[in-house]
Write a structure and sequence with these properties.
This protein is mainly alpha-helical and 101 residues long. A hairpin with a 6-residue loop joins strand 1 and strand 2.
């Protein structure tokens, strides 16, 4: 298991928990400990292996982890205050916050 994008490898029997891809190299997210696809050496704008960058850049989950807030991001008052209730709700509905597969 690795968190490092440069060490990502395909793992037989595993898949990205966010997009369901079974063919991309995988790493574990630091914030929620989920397998996530990764393109290993650079972020891909063309699709395939981009979930790690999306999750680390745009998710409340990773923001909450980075800010070292306590508890779950879904219940975090600090995150709600920072983004405001309307933006927090919009962001929490984004696909990249939580595993779907």
């Amino acid at each position: 298991m690795t968190y490092d994008r440069m060490d990502a490898k395909k793992i037989p029997g595993e898949h990205c928990r966010f997009c369901g891809d079974e063919t991309s190299p995988l790493v574990k997210t630091r914030c929620c400990e989920q397998w996530i696809c990764c393109d290993t050496s650079y972020m891909s704008f063309q699709g395939g292996g981009h979930c790690q960058d999306e999750h680390e850049t745009y998710s409340l989950c990773h923001f909450h982890y980075n800010e070292k807030h306590q508890g779950h991001w879904q219940e975090c008052e600090e995150c709600r205050r920072y983004f405001g209730e309307k933006e927090f709700k919009r962001m929490s509905e984004d696909w990249i916050n939580s595993p779907h597969y």
